[in-house]
Amino acid sequence: MSRHARTAETPQVVPPQLRRYPARQLNKSQFDAIAGTRTPQGLAALVRLPAETYDPTLPEDNGGKILLLEGIQDPGNAGTLIRTAAAFNFSGVVLTDKCADPFSPRVVQATAGAVLSLWLRATPQYPELVRSLRENGYRLAAALLDGKDGPDVLRRDRLILALGNEATGLSPGLRQTADFHVGLPIARDRAESLNAAVCGGILMYLSQG
């Protein structure tokens, strides 16, 4: 069940898909008291988190392309990557236990509503999930600064794209497990590396087709 609240200063219009839920109108001071942002949009919802998010098991239908985030700690980066994965039709995102919580307020805000449009798994047992996926025909592509494989290796039906921690990159274990080491050609005399979310966005775009 979801409960929705609108401020008294906003129009009395509830989207059709939300009209089956109970709603309560709040005045501005009440709404500001429960909102986590300085400039809330005037609509809030109380929802139940998907219980399976923190289970160390995969969904019955894994889908095609999957994003793996290892130690992405910045909530803005984590949320942006989840949003980008949804935009490029990735089926799900696996996050390690060192990542920002996918349902923390800042991550959810950065997803701009996309957080519930694909499946999520946040677990320290991600190596087992990767192993299971690879046994079922998925190939693991690791994004590395020194990656030698071109973006053509990303254009496959069953893919796991792995992005590492903003400072340290991917762990040695994932590097060794990966089928491909993918890099992006950048002017390193001008910029040593790319932001994790920017790098992930480019690679997800290149995986299309």
If you had to describe this structure to a student in words, what would you say it looks like?
The chain has 209 residues and is of the alpha/beta class. The chain has 6 helices and 9 strands; from the N terminus they run ββαββαβαβαββαβα. The chain has helices spanning 28-34, 75-87, 105-111, 126-135, 172-177, 196-206; strands at 3-7, 23-26, 43-46, 65-69, 92-95, 119-122, 139-143, 159-163, 180-182. The strands form 2 sheets. Strands 6-5-4-8-7-9 form a 6-stranded parallel sheet, with helices on both faces. Strands 2-1-3 form a 3-stranded mixed sheet. Helix 2 (75-87) packs parallel to helix 3 (105-111) and helix 2 packs parallel to helix 6 (196-206).
Structure summarized in a few sentences:
This protein is an alpha/beta fold. It is built from 6 helices and 9 strands; from the N terminus they run ββαββαβαβαββαβα. It is globular.
> How large is the share of residues in beta strands?
15-25%
Spatial strand sequence of the major β-sheet: 6-5-4-8-7-9
- Give the oligomer, counting copies of the same chain as homo and different chains as hetero: single chain
Q: What would the CATH topology of the largest domain be?
A: Alpha/beta knot
How are the elements arranged and paired?
Layout: E1 3-7, E2 23-26, H1 28-34, E3 43-46, E4 65-69, H2 75-87, E5 92-95, H3 105-111, E6 119-122, H4 126-135, E7 139-143, E8 159-163, H5 172-177, E9 180-182, H6 196-206
Parallel strand pairs: 1-2, 4-5, 4-8, 5-6, 7-8, 7-9
Antiparallel strand pairs: 1-3
Helix pairs in contact: 2-3, 2-6
